[in-house]
């Protein structure tokens, strides 16, 4: 009787082991079925390589999908988008006084006027007023090394492209020793898109 019981237990253990193996095979089959798609094995990776020895900047982003063709493709950038840069005539110091008047700044098609009065009638006052316009424009000082009037006001756009171009229409003057001289602004770089 003990021999029969021992054989029965052995057979039950074998059956249990086979059942466990069957369950594991079914789980494996299920996992393999989810992987059995071409898109999971066909992956193309996009990389950008700048061949310029002097410029290591990344100028493009590349996104690929599993349907992208493999290969090497050249990309030539002829022009980069630029912002507007405008520079004023030279002044003796940042506190040089400006004649009262108005300056109209057009940034991206939006025109805003700055009134030069007793509160801001210096070159630095104008710089602060420009920076407080809330537009995509900034003003800073540039010392060009001139013996008498080295300080210039550099006005730049903070965004590139023609849609963000800056123009200035002014009617202010600069106080010299005995005369008034119209303050001039020269555009040194125009805003443009890539071509």
Task: Describe what this molecule looks like in 3D.
It contains 3 helices and 9 strands. It has 195 residues and is an alpha+beta fold. The chain has 2 domains: 1-77, no CATH class; 85-189, Immunoglobulin-like (Sandwich), CATH 2.60.40. The strands form 3 sheets. Strands 4-5-1-9 form a 4-stranded antiparallel sheet, covered by helices on one side. A 3-stranded antiparallel sheet has the order 3-2-6, covered by helices on one side. The protein has a two-stranded antiparallel ribbon with strand order 7-8. It is elongated. Residues 175-182 have low confidence and may be disordered.
What are the key terms here?
four-stranded antiparallel β-sheet, alpha+beta, elongated, Immunoglobulin-like, three-stranded antiparallel β-sheet, 2 domains, 9 strands
List the helices and strands and how they pair.
Layout: H1 2-35, H2 38-41, E1 85-88, E2 101-107, E3 110-116, H3 123-131, E4 137-143, E5 151-157, E6 166-170, E7 173-175, E8 180-182, E9 185-189
Antiparallel strand pairs: 1-5, 1-9, 2-3, 2-6, 4-5, 7-8
Low-confidence spans: pLDDT under 50, at least 5 residues?
A: 175-182
What would CATH call the architecture of the largest domain? Sandwich
Query: Quick one: how many beta strands?
Result: 9
Distance between the termini: 95 Å
Largest sheet data:
4 strands, antiparallel
Shape: elongated
H/E element string?
A: HHEEEHEEEEEE
> Percent of residues in helical segments?
10-25%
Strand order of the largest sheet: 4-5-1-9
| Integer count of domains | 2
Mean pLDDT: 79
Class computed from helices, strands and strand pairing: alpha+beta
Please identify the top-level CATH class of the largest domain: Mainly Beta
Radius of gyration: 36 Å
Fraction in beta strands:
15-25%
